[in-house]
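Preliminary data (for renewal application), zinc ion complex.
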Amino acid sequence: MSQDCIFCKIVRKEVPADILFEDNDMLIFNDINPQAPTHLLVIPKEHISTFSELDDAVLMGKIFTKVNEVSKAQKLKNYRVVINNGKDAGQEVFHLHVHIIAGREMSWPPG
Ligand code: AMP
Ligand code: ZN
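Predicted structure:
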């Protein structure tokens, strides 16, 4: 747990979020500034700053299994799964999160 981390505060329910799913390991909630009609964030409850610090293969498996499950549950067919790892890659919140973005056409490569 990190005292100042916004996503840890959401985990602790100190900051409200539009939570779609929660279990012992992770939380899924709507992004506060959605970049598409569907924009979900999947986070581990444990404070792990970046993807490169995620060294727990079991947790990694659980997160990506859930990404797949929630995308199916939301009937998403075309969607993007994004992890920004580090500031220059666009990471602003240093608590690992997986973006699931869907509902509009998206360009490639990213800017
Ligand atoms: P990133 O740039 O990959 O670190 O993404 C951080 C994401 O967290 C952005 O899409 C923000 O809109 C989102 N975000 C920041 N604060 C909150 C919050 N309190 N509730 C929900 N999403 C948030
Ligand atoms: Zn945190």
